[in-house]
User: Fold this.
Amino acid sequence: MEQTVETINHIIRTRRAIFPPNYIQKEIPQEVLDNILENAHYAPTHKRTEPWRFIVFRGQEKLQHLASFFMERYRNNTPAESFSQARYEAAGEKILKSACVIAINVELHPNDLPEWEETAAVACAVQNMWLTATAYGIGSYWSSPAVLKELGEYLELPEGQKCLGLYYLGYHDGVEPPMRRNGKIEDKITWA
Assistant:
């Protein structure tokens, strides 16, 4: 049992956001992605609604398609005099540097639960994915772009679902990001 506690403590405490510029060109095996997603499915969920819904973009063609959404959005929302080819290309760069991008969506059950509970369950699912990716040596991070409503429309989410962001994954160059500088836990606890 002690080994299990040490292992989970290590994974939790070394989990970091590792961004696409640090990713290397290496495909994530299907069985690894399956395990990451399966562990997401073990997140806590009130009334067993299991509100997490994921759309996985993998492979150059699918990633290019998703990147094109952001690139074309930039083109369509930028006045011609302000348009920059470099910014246009940068709009899809994070996606194209990733081995996999997962759209994180929530399926709401407004007659059963408040939205915040369903969102919290999805966040727990993402944490499970993040910890699993860390254990595999895969970098990842969750981004919530300002265009979530438009992204949901692009993804053609059914009624009752909302997009909560994109989860980027990729093997990385091995450069560890700096250790987190969390404040003291004692400052955040009141014993009643």
